[in-house]
Amino acid sequence: MDILADDRTKQLKAFDDTKAGVKGIVDAAAAGGVVDIPNIFIRPPDEDLELSTTSLQVPAIDLRGVGDKGSLRRQNIVNEIKHASEKWGFFQVVNHEIPTKVLEDMMKGARGFHEQDAELKKYYYSRDPERMVKFNTNYDFYMSRTADWRDTLIVDMLNTYHLDPQHLPSVCRESTVDYLNHVLKFVDTLFELLSEALGLQPNYLKQLECEKGKSLACHYYPPCPKLDKTLTVNKHTDASFVTLLLQDEIGGLQVLHQNQWANVDPIPNALVVNIGDLLQIISNDKFKSVIHRAVGNVTQTRTSVACFFHGVATPPKTYGPIEKLITKESPQIYREFTVKDYMMEFYSRGLDDKSGLNYVRM
């Protein structure tokens, strides 16, 4: 190992050993009033964080009337989702019938966990892949070229489909259980709409159990004084069928669209939906999993809650491009895979490495 790499490893370990996360850096600097960003968070000078920003907006889709199956209104919603999934890979939904209080309580719970006494949080600080509920800074902390300016509480239900609420931190236990219950009802409707948008029967994706394995990530992004030097989430695509994101009013999520960054401006009570790698694969590239990232805020703390739906990991289940979507004009692009293998490959590399789609491309 060269001297620079050795020094970086020591810096990473020293930070990790505090079990205080990025918020610990900000808290320690509070008395002096200046936050000194450690070198492990500074991106290399040759990396362009800018790119141009477009004024185009990710589509927003009103789901009011979606329950009236067979109606013109529902067909219009399906058409909007089809267009957004093919052209953007992202859309926001309103009138999804998850109560405002449930959304607000989830955000309060997530923020409450990260802002509680540091000693209480340390109990959950872990990088053990077998631990269902854990808190840390960047899952890829030791693999990425540069660390991202964020802390995360993770609820990993990829392999264990039952969540015992007693494993959750008390400060966000009730709100998390309530939110997950509502999200699981909504995602059934979402997979119906996505199935229809692919020209399939409404229950097609549900029968594939695309919603079964899941993980919840409660992200916390403290204020960052050097936005030109670091990111809160580096550019990547998601290793999921779909991801549902609840974001606060601060904003910072950006989607790469036509080689420009498009801001996903917060809409009150909306959920952001993005197509993940696994849905792009089984749709044979009909739907797109697109690159996205998050930028920080100089003065304000941002919170977001992402729910990733990965499908069946255990026991291993084979997925592959849907036969009906393979034609002479659209020949098969990807080979079959298991979610377990795909996720192992995803977690073996840094978030900022190349898309995992290459792993199963024929």
Automatic annotation (TrEMBL):
Signal sequence interval, chain numbering: none
UniProt xrefs under Gene3D superfamilies: B-lactam Antibiotic, Isopenicillin N Synthase, Chain
Domain of life: Eukaryota
GO molecular-function term, one example from the UniProt record: metal ion binding
Keyword list, A-Z: Iron, Metal-binding, Oxidoreductase, Vitamin C
InterPro entries found in the cross-reference section: DIOX_N (IPR026992), IPNS-like_FE2OG_OXY (IPR044861), IPNS-like_sf (IPR027443), Oxoglu/Fe-dep_dioxygenase_dom (IPR005123)
Boundaries of every Fe2OG dioxygenase domain copy: 212-311
Pfam families linked to this entry: 2OG-FeII_Oxy (PF03171), DIOX_N (PF14226)
Similarity comment: Belongs to the iron/ascorbate-dependent oxidoreductase family.
Protein name as catalogued: Fe2OG dioxygenase domain-containing protein
Organism: Ambrosia artemisiifolia (Common ragweed)
